[in-house]
Amino acid sequence: MIRVLADENMVGLDLLPKDEMDIHTVPGRTISKRDLDGVDVLWVRSVTQVSEALVDGSKLRFVGTATAGLEHIDQEALKKRGIGFSAAPGANANSVVEYVLAALAELQEPWERLEGGETLGIVGCGSVGRLFASVAQALGWNVKVHDPWLAQGNCSPDWASFAEILQCRVISLHCSLTREQPWPSYHLFDAPALAALNGSQWLINAARGSVIDNSALLEHLSGEDPVNCVLDVWEGEPAFNTALLASPALKFATAHIAGYSWDAKWQATRMLYSSLLDAQLLRTPLPEGLSSSESLAAVSGTGSDLARQLISQRYSIKEDDLLFRQLTSLGAQRAAGFDALRRTYRQRRELRGSELIQPRFIASRELSGICAALGISLREQRTELDATA
Ligand SMILES: NC(=O)c1ccc[n+]([C@@H]2O[C@H](COP(=O)([O-])OP(=O)(O)OC[C@H]3O[C@@H](n4cnc5c(N)ncnc54)[C@H](O)[C@@H]3O)[C@@H](O)[C@H]2O)c1
Ligand SMILES: O=C(O)[C@H](O)[C@H](O)COP(=O)(O)O
């Protein structure tokens, strides 16, 4: 029997086989050395700093993080001690892509501008950036990608310099957080970069808060023609600069939940379980994946309207924005409120893999294109007329 200590925000732990594992859960932010007594496997999320100090002297055999971002893990310290390590790369990529699409469709204008041939600039071409680029291309949008760490040609759409990205109508950030030279992403959007943007553009950050210098952003937002923003991540989480929320240019503000679909979290749990099978710490095979969610109801209209109707059947970014803005009334309890919003996050299913049942007379070519891009299977409903024909 192996003893697992897991962050209480992991999903689906109760669905894992229990014959070889004894799982205890704790709040991730407060995991300390004392909690690791007798623990073989530690499963964390982004809020636990897995430092040399934490793991030193422990009997840990394996650490897994149910996240894409890795900056909270001292991988060198694990390696030195022979502690195995794995993460969940890509598990939440589609969840983040659907979050960004929800923002664009809800705002309508950026979606329409992209539909009209203007350019989407993606910063970071890892699991999220690459998937977003391919979905955007399938929607017929022009895409430019900036990721100086990768060799050009490793990401299919047009490669771009940072200066070119700053010219794009919509800029979406999907880089990992790094201070490493020569291309640190830490404060990539500093005062000079922000000064190159204006109110005809949209800047979306669902990567890490510190990719944008939040103090410089506040100054920019109080200027004359600020860029429109969507922020899911904040410098100093779980604390955040509430003054940012006063700006009308901040269109949507959410509590680091872009990757929080149920599907993504369960996929991450499955990936961590699988890595214990690979490390031969477990033998019982993985349980089944999630069954697909209910079919989507018929939609009508065009462009952003169609997308909004589809997305809103699974996800409401407006609801997340409202909940987040309510945190400002909590005063000193805001940071705790931020964590609570994340801990109690609703069960949100992804659109990808869903089925849309649509009457034949309102199924259009445009709808087929959007469904194909979003991974929705479109089934035309037979009408009485079809049946009698
Ligand atoms: N908001 C959320 O809920 C959420 C969910 C998933 C991931 N994330 C964040 O988004 C990031 C991207 O996720 P991913 O799964 O694609 O990670 P990934 O590690 O697969 O890709 C990150 C990419 O960013 C690139 N990069 C690093 N520095 C850069 C720079 N200065 N300029 C341009 N590109 C740079 C890397 O080369 C890499 O290709 C994660 O690291 C994580 O921090 C947030
Ligand atoms: O890095 C990631 O995978 C995401 O930012 C993820 O959504 C973080 O969630 P957390 O670990 O903070 O619960």
Automatic annotation (TrEMBL):
Q: Binding positions for substrate?
A: 46, 67, 260
Annotated Erythronate-4-phosphate dehydrogenase dimerisation domain residues:
304-362
The active site is formed by 208, 237, 256 (proton donor)
Which PROSITE patterns does the annotation name? D_2_HYDROXYACID_DH_1, D_2_HYDROXYACID_DH_3
Catalytic function, reaction form: 4-phospho-D-erythronate + NAD(+) = (R)-3-hydroxy-2-oxo-4-phosphooxybutanoate + NADH + H(+)
List the Pfam families hit by this protein, alphabetically: 2-Hacid_dh_C, DUF3410
Tell whether Cytoplasm is among the UniProt keywords: yes
Pathway it works in? Cofactor biosynthesis; pyridoxine 5'-phosphate biosynthesis; pyridoxine 5'-phosphate from D-erythrose 4-phosphate: step 2/5
**What keywords were assigned to this record?**
Cytoplasm, NAD, Oxidoreductase, Pyridoxine biosynthesis
Main localization is: cytoplasm
Q: Does the keyword Nuclease apply?
A: no
Q: Known EC number(s)?
A: 1.1.1.290
Which EC main class describes this enzyme? oxidoreductase
**Positions of the D-isomer specific 2-hydroxyacid dehydrogenase NAD-binding domain:** 117-258
Which Gene3D superfamilies does this entry report, sorted A to Z?
A: 3.30.1370.170, NAD(P)-binding Rossmann-like Domain
**Ligand binding (NAD(+)):** 147, 232, 259
Q: Give the family, as the similarity comment puts it.
A: Belongs to the D-isomer specific 2-hydroxyacid dehydrogenase family. PdxB subfamily.
Matching PANTHER family: D-ISOMER SPECIFIC 2-HYDROXYACID DEHYDROGENASE CATALYTIC DOMAIN-CONTAINING PROTEIN-RELATED (PTHR43761:SF1), D-ISOMER SPECIFIC 2-HYDROXYACID DEHYDROGENASE FAMILY PROTEIN (AFU_ORTHOLOGUE AFUA_1G13630) (PTHR43761)
Main function? Catalyzes the oxidation of erythronate-4-phosphate to 3-hydroxy-2-oxo-4-phosphonooxybutanoate.
Describe the subunit structure: Homodimer.
The name of this protein is Erythronate-4-phosphate dehydrogenase
Native organism: Congregibacter variabilis
